[in-house]
Structure formats: C-alpha cells, structure tokens
C-alpha cells in the first residue's frame, strides 16, 4: 500500500476559522519569544558562514519562519519579517523576489529539516533497537523538533492548509518522503509482530502523524512541558499499537511488586 499522499493529509490541521485557533495564534505564540531556529543544510542555497550575503539571507529566512509560525500565512507581512531580521523591508527583495517566494522557501525548509532530524535520530539508534522503540524515537524527534527546536517546522505544519497550491510542489514532495520514513517504521513493526493485528496501518499512520502535528496548534509553551507531551504521546502510541508494557513501565511495576513483598 503506497504512502504517497498520506503525509499531506496528516500535515493539514484544517478549520483555521475556528475561534479557539484564532485565540491560540493571538495569545500562545508570543512574537517576542522566539524558539531556536536552524540554518539547515536542506535549504535551496548553500550558506557560507563567511559570506555576509548568505548570513543575511539566512537571517531573513529565520525571521520569516518565526513570523509565519506566529501569525500564519495571511498575517505574515514583509514589514514584520524585516523588523524581526533588523533590516529594511526593501532589502528582502534582493534575496527573494516576492513574499510568496520567501514563504515557499520557509515551508519547504520546515518539512525537509523535520524529515532530516527524524531520520538522523533513527540512524543513531543501535542496530538491536526494536521496531516499536524506533517508532518511539521518531515520535520524540518529531515533537521536539516541532515544539522545541525549529520555527521552520512549526511554520510548515501550522500553515500547510493555508498555502496556495502553486507554492506547495516542493513541500508536497518532501511530505511524501517523510511519509515513507513513517511507513517503513510501521511496516517493520507490523512484520515483527509488534503491532496488533486488528489495526489498519494506513489509518494508524495518519492518526499518529496528525496527532503529532496538531501539538503545534494547542501547546502553550508557558504551561505545557515538552517532556510531558513526549512521554504522554509515546505511552498512548505504544499502548495503542501494542498492548505489551514498555521496558520502563515493566521495570517500575516489578520494582513496586518487589517492594510490596518485603
């Protein structure tokens, strides 16, 4: 069963006109408190650390990612990007031909950076890591990159349903590639008997990715710990896919039982 197209669906937190989403955009995402941005190797133009022009371009992209993640596609103005980048607005046109070109680059970088981050996290695991534990690693890598590391990822996820279709070609290609990463994870876990037989893999993948992406909408960074979100997501997904206890839970239960017998 091909995964093509599934990632796109999971990356569309739609119904942007709902009042509570407007409240989230206005109150949760404080423009004065940026998260760490990444100068990703996946960008279309290589960034030379010694080049003033390249550094300025990167600064514009970082600023655009932050503004887009906070204000959305419709609310992103070049004047806001320029102010955050500490530039004059006309200077942006030296690097990007239009507002749409700048936003398209940010959207592409967001999903490309996310895919690379998750894949690198998986590549760093020991060979003996079980398929289900590999899924848990991907869950954590996705959430931390989305919520803690990259304005690009948040911008891409939160605005996926708002961007005009003609600006989405590269983004959709990257989403399909990212979807295949998750498809392999689920296929391997299923083949290893670590996913229950009554679960439809296609729906499971869509539900997991959709839930992970939606965290960018509802999380309040002033109240919601990323550690708690990651732990809760891992527990829900692990026990939803496989009724067996995780090693941590099993160890804690045995410790409690041993203590009670003394």
Automatic annotation (TrEMBL):
Coiled coil: none annotated. Residues 242-262 are annotated as: Disordered. One of its GO terms (molecular function) is DNA-binding transcription factor activity. Keywords: DNA-binding, Transcription, Transcription regulation. Residues 251-262 have a biased composition (Basic residues). PROSITE patterns: HTH_TETR_2. Residues 77-96 bind DNA. Residues 54-114 form the HTH tetR-type domain. Pfam families: TetR_C_24, TetR_N. InterPro entries: Homeodomain-like_sf (IPR009057), HTH-type_TetR-like_transc_reg (IPR050109), HTH_TetR (IPR001647), KstR2_TetR_C (IPR041490), Tet_transcr_reg_TetR-rel_C_sf (IPR036271). PANTHER family: HTH-TYPE TRANSCRIPTIONAL REGULATOR BETI (PTHR30055:SF234), HTH-TYPE TRANSCRIPTIONAL REGULATOR RUTR (PTHR30055). This is TetR family transcriptional regulator.
